[in-house]
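Section handout 9: paired folding examples.
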Amino acid sequence: MTMITGPTPELDERGLDRAYAVLSGGTFAVLTGAGVSTDSGIPDYRGAGAPKRTPMTVTQFLRNDDSHKRYWAGSHLGWAHFDAAEPNAGHRMLATLEETGFVNGVVTQNVDGLHVRAGSRRVVDLHGSMDRVHCLHCGQTFARQSIAARIDSDNPWLSRPDAVTLNPDGDAEITSVERFIAPACSVCGGPLKPDVVFFGEFVPPVKFAEARDIVGQADALVIAGSSLVVNSGIRLLEHARRNKRPIVIINRGETKGDSRATVKLDAGASETLAALAERLLG
């Protein structure tokens, strides 16, 4: 493995040249994590300076009415900030690389929808997307905007503060939820849940199969902005490794896959992807 670290331009240039040599001969799949969206104002769970927090588990959400309300109230406050985030240079460059035939698809662990908004067409959102909501009883799906409008109408007292502590899953911190009216399905009255994989849930097998196909059909794999702590990311890395595909990892700090990478660049995701795209597009 070639590992490029340090802030000096020389080392960065050598790392990019090495990654270019690995990727320029064919197509590559891309697996992205929270580090790709930090430049869009969405914080990372595990990066340097990330706030310590305990995300709600699916068991808490389903079995505890107070937790259910607390999640929806915090998620609603965070949604306005989450939805206002714009794709950054990394998102846009991946869309351009797909359009020009270098990238065969993007698999993302993020739930922000920014890859699609940036123009990427073949995207598998492993952990779902915050812009969709579904009923846990009848399966009806709703657009998040419509649910947000209903929450505003049912909870006129819930004013959004000027500064909300936003978390990577679109949630925000809130203290009291006693008065909060959680949204219910307008079809059957059942409880609603954002279309995201909570802690304690598994990635749907069909969705993981789609992600595995993207990785398997590519000549190489790029992993950007992920520490690979989540098992699904490591499984995709292993799929590429077993098929003898070169692996390029771009991430600030160590990842669980560094020892298996062909090239590791210890650097920010968006600026590195932009610089790499400049070399590939010539």
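Moving on to protein 2 of 2.
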Amino acid sequence: MRTVDWAAVEARLGTALPGDYKRLVEIFGGDGAFDGYLQLHVPDAHDRSMDVVRYTEWLGEWARTRGSRLWNPYPVYPAPGGVLQWASTEQADGFYWLTGDPDPDRWPVLAKEDIPDSWVRFDGTTAEFVHRVLTDADHPFSTARHFDVHWYQYYGDQVQP
């Protein structure tokens, strides 16, 4: 189990985060990926692009100073109701929350390929989204079409559960 100071993380981000995401991070949240494909963005990751706090701060500043057309029609968090990235894939797909609801456990997941206007919305929790990626062959971002067995592979020095 990984210990995370969620109060400090959420204070720095300026928002609470979904409870099931926090549980996923506590169980799996080292430097690694599900099926070598889906990598969670976690607090204190070695790589800034995989650190949910540092990447969110960087992306918010990027959008503020350079515009956020790449994420149209959505604003980028910390803009009200903006998208906040929580995972990505080896193929540059991005998984985001749409942060408009005051209850983060009700935030829908938005998935985006690395091409404009490719948003797909999933009304369900973060954990449900990850589960469907791993087990539902009809899911647009599925690994179930390619693997019968699933795993979490660690890439870094994090302590494994």
